[in-house]
Design goal:
Elements lengths: L3 E5 L4 E6 L2 E5 L2 E5 L2 E5 L4 E3 L7 H9 L10 E4 L4 H4 L9 E4 L2 E4 L2 E2 L11 E2 L4 E5 L8 E7 L2 E7 L11 H6 L5 H14 L2 E4 L5 E2 L4
Parallel strand pairs: 6-7, 7-8, 14-15
Antiparallel strand pairs: 1-2, 2-5, 3-4, 5-6, 8-9, 9-10, 11-12, 12-13, 13-14, 15-16
């Protein structure tokens, strides 16, 4: 199993445990999301893939000397099944699924992503609202020594959709203009993007 080491600073390191993919053949789309680990403290996992990937995810965490109980935050960029399939593994974590923040049966009423509020997890990690693909999408911004990474879920499908809007539109968009606006916001903000269904890419310099 080969994981992609991305970034390290004094407090946290980020690794893509599994790069996402999506391919269409006939009337079947084969797809799974990118799954990213930020190892701190705090320990965060972003998007937990499908319900059939639990054993793979546990083994991947072992390579980083982690157990599911060591994860502090599970962040799912949105609620589609390929992004939330193994949330149940992380019983000790606070779960952020789209605009919802919960732990066990308690849901936070004090934070409102719908009004644009960002959720600060640590000095280096924050969750920002980026709706469009769904109306409750979020992205994770990781600051690695002033190099900014965005883990965006399906706000960006893959690098190719920078040149071909049809890729992200055909993947489904609840609000194309809102998604377009948030894509531009993220492109202006960060240096690297981990998209929902492709390898990480560097934001083109204009």
């Amino acid at each position: 199993m080969q994981h992609i080491f991305l970034a390290i600073n004094k407090m946290s390191q980020m690794s893509i445990l599994f790069p996402g993919y999506s391919n269409v053949a006939g009337d079947i789309m084969k797809a799974n999301c990118s799954c990213t680990l930020i190892k701190g403290p705090p320990n965060c996992i972003i998007d937990t893939m499908t319900a059939w990937d639990g054993s793979r995810l546990i083994e991947a965490l072992k390579l980083h000397n982690l157990h599911p109980d060591d994860i502090d935050y599970v962040i799912c960029t949105h609620g589609h099944s390929d992004h939330i399939g193994n949330n149940n593994l992380f019983q000790n974590a606070t779960h952020i699924v789209g605009f919802s923040i919960s732990k066990r049966d308690e849901y936070s009423l004090s934070h409102d992503f719908s009004k644009g509020a960002e959720f600060q997890i640590s000095d280096d990690i924050k969750v920002v609202p980026t709706p469009g693909h769904t109306l409750q999408d979020v992205s994770v911004i990781f600051n690695n020594n002033d190099v900014l990474y965005a883990i965006t879920g399906d706000l960006f499908e893959k690098e190719e959709d920078l040149e071909n809007d049809n890729i992200w539109i055909s993947a489904g968009s609840d609000n194309e203009q809102l998604q377009r606006d948030n894509r531009e916001k993220i492109l202006k903000l960060v240096d690297f993007i981990v998209p929902g269904h492709g390898p990480m890419f560097q934001v083109p310099k204009k």
